[in-house]
Structure formats: structure tokens, C-alpha cells
Amino acid sequence: MDYKFNTMDDFDLEGKTILLRVDVNSPVDPLNGDLLDDTRMRLHSTTISELSERGAKVVILAHQSRPGKSDFTPLKQHALALSSIIGTEVQYVDSIFSKEARDIISNLVDGEIVLLENVRFYSEEMPKLSPKEQANTYMVKTLAPYADYFINDAFATAHRSQTSIIGFSQVLPSIAGRVMELELTSLFGILDNAQEPRVYVLGGIKADDSINVMANALKTNQADYILTTGLVANIFLVASGVELQEYNNNFIVERGYEDYIDIAKDLLKDFSDKIILPVDLAILEDDKRVEYSVDEIPNLPIYDIGTKTIEMYKEKILLAKTLFANGPAGVFEKEGFNLGTEDLLNAMAESKGFSIIGGGHLAAAASNLDLDDKITHISSGGGASINLIAGKELPAVKALIDSANKK
Predict the structure, then answer these.
(1) Is 174 helix (H, G, I), strand (E, B) or coil?
(2) Where are the alpha helices (DSSP H) in 241-381?
(3) What are phi and psi of 400, to 5 degrees?
(4) Residues 86, 46: one domain?
(5) Residue 397 to residues 33, 162, 167, 373: CA-CA distances in angstroms?
């Protein structure tokens, strides 16, 4: 696969003005508006600090939430948090391309950092525009002349086609930041160099994501085994003819996944030897964990895979040379039903194979278990990583590759 893109190692950035797109979108306390988590800011601090230390003039573009949401806020707090994390002042400007913003950019000295206002305050950021139309937006036409390079470090938004993500790549030499570089190197690595056996552990409540990954991995012969958990497993059990009872069948329909039962039937017809289904499940019964064989499920909610299934899956995981996991095995937040998620994560950590977690809730669960250093790569972007593994073209990645191929 040809995925050549420019990195920060390819250019002398000293004295250059850099437009740097990051994703510092963070949870906000609905009562007082305070930021509740600085994980993403810490993630991007590596790129920001390196650029500053190399003597670049750093102009940060970022967003927080989206119009209409209660956490759609200015980025003043983000600038303060970044300043604390980096140990260098990150100046905040409450506009994106005003005269004040442009004057500040023009007067930056080497190593200085400025964070412009929430790009989603600007009306041309969110609409679906073509790359050419994005390049002709007022934001791009106004800011691009002040910059020498555009660096995209916002992997978590790589599956979005928005002006601040794509537009600048049309008119400026474009580079992957350190977060973007690590993500693409790791994820393309599993696609290009995966050693057998290749095991995918796919679950969670966003079943469409996992089933799309499954379909691509099976049809392109990238998977030896798919271990199904969560709502994904329930859909495939129904497709295989197992009776999960009215409550669980209704849950599939209510989540909008009824059509995926037919998709699951087709995949089982073609790849039944590779798709592994649970043999037992954990039910919420009288507020406790009670396990049943899949052919004896009562009309009560399924909250986890059972212990026999866990042991069966652990054997596959420990033998794997390549592992990709997306989505928790059950309602791991509820006491007693964290068993499947945690045991499978611990098995991944124990495995000597190359392991990737596709962000989201499973990444949070791994962090809670202090397994970050034992998993080869935990993605910072759930949607982006899942789309890439599922074989979909990511607009931001295409823009970086196109820029690198320009002569």
C-alpha cells in the first residue's frame, strides 16, 4: 500500500510559521464549564513542544464540540491547560482570522505558540465542501499566506472532511505531526505487515463500526479469526439462529441494527470457519451476574460474555501474532460485568503479538487497568482508526499523501 506522507523529520522548521491542527476536544463540566480531562492536550503536547524547541512559530488550530452543544465553548481554558502541560505560554486569541489574530501571527518570534479560537465558531468549517471549495474559504485564503507549512496532528478527526483539516493541505506543503505519524505508521503496519495468526476482537455497542471492520478484514483475507463480543456477538448469534429472546432482539432493533442481521448471515455463510461466536453469556438477573449457555438465554438483558467464552477467546488471543480489538465485551462499567472486557484486555497485554486497540471505551478500560505500556498501540481516534482498518479512505490522510506526492 502506498501511503507516503511528509513528517516533521523531512523539513527544517526553524524560523518557519506553522499552522498546526490538533484535536483537543475535551469533556466539559456542565455546571461550571471547567475542562474535566486534559488527555488529548497531553497527547499533542509532544508535537507542540518539539516545534517550539526547534524554533518554529506555532499557530494552533483546534475545535471544541460543535454548534448547539452545551460544551461548545471558546478555547481560553485549553490555552491555559496547554501552557501548564508544555511549560511554555500558549497565547490565546479569541478570533480565527481577525486583524488582531493576523498581527499576532506576523509578530511571533521563533518558539512562540498561539492558539486561535475554536474553528467551529466559523460557519465554513462544518459544511460538506469539496477540497477545492475548502481551499477557497475565507479562513484558508486569509491564514495560509501567513504560514510556511501546515501540520496535521489531529488523527482523531482524520475521517472528517472539514475546512481546517483539508483546506490548508490544498495550498500549503503539508506534514503529519507526531501523533498522526505514530497512528498511521502503526495502523498501516497492521494492514501491511500483519503476521499470522491475525485475530480481531470485535464488540462494543457501536456494532456498525466493528461489523464494517470485520467485513473488510474477512473479504481481503486479513483475518484468521474474528472473536465476537458485545452487541456484535448478539447480532451474529441471532443471525446464526440462536434465540436471544424478546428483550435482546428488541435492543438490536432499537439501536438501528436490524439490517445488520442479514449482513451477519452473509458473513457467516462465507466465513463461518473464521467467525467465532460466544458459547455462553452473562445476564443481568436480580441486579447480579448470572451465566447461561447461549441456547438457554432467558428474557433478560445480556451484559457480558460468559466465562467459558472468555477462556476460549483467551486461547486464541495468546496464540495470535497480530491483534486488533474494538469495543468492550460488555457493560464493563457495571460491577460484575467487567469480567469479559478486563480478561480479554489482560490476555492482549500478555500476548507476545503486535496489538492495537481502536480507541474509544476499550482504550479507556485498558488505561484503567494500567495496560497502556503493554499494548503495542492504543489509538487516539476511535472513529478514524476503525474507518482506516475497515479499508475506508480517510480524507485527512489522503490530503497528506496527495501533498507529499506533489512535485
Answers:
(1) strand
(2) 245-254, 259-271, 307-319, 339-350, 360-368
(3) -65, -45
(4) yes
(5) 33, 13, 13, 26
Give the chain's domain count: 2
Tell me whether strands 90-92 and 113-115 are parallel, antiparallel or unpaired.
parallel
Handedness of CA 207, 209, 212, 217 (dihedral sign): negative
Indicate the length of the chain as a whole number: 407
Domain membership of residue 388 (yes or no) is: no
Q: Quick one: what percent of the chain has pLDDT higher than 90?
A: 84
pTM of the model: 0.85
Structural domain boundaries, residue 205: 196-352
Question: Do 336 and 217 share a structural domain?
Answer: yes
Inside any domain, residue 358: no
Same domain, 231 and 324: yes
Q: Could you tell me if 399 and 250 lie in one domain? A: no
Chain-centre distance for alpha carbon 189:
16
Distances in Å between the Cα of 270 and the Cα atoms of 70, 221, 366 are 46, 12, 33
Kindly give the residue spans of alpha helices, DSSP state H, lying in 170-241. 178-192, 207-219, 230-239
55 lies in some domain? yes
Within 8 A by CB and 6+ apart from 57, the residues are: 15, 16, 17, 18, 105, 108, 109, 110, 111, 112
In the numeric block, the cell 478514524 is attached to: 384
Contacts of 281 (CB under 8 A, 6+ apart): 233, 291, 292, 294, 297, 302, 304, 305, 306, 309
Residue 154 and residue 16 share a domain: yes
Is residue 128 a part of any domain in this protein? yes
Secondary structure class of 354 (helix, strand, coil): strand
| Model confidence band, residue 407 (pLDDT cutoffs 50, 70, 90) | low
Using the 8-state DSSP alphabet, how is residue 321 labeled? S
- pLDDT tens digits, residue range 18-49? 999 999 999 888 888 889 989 899 999 999 99
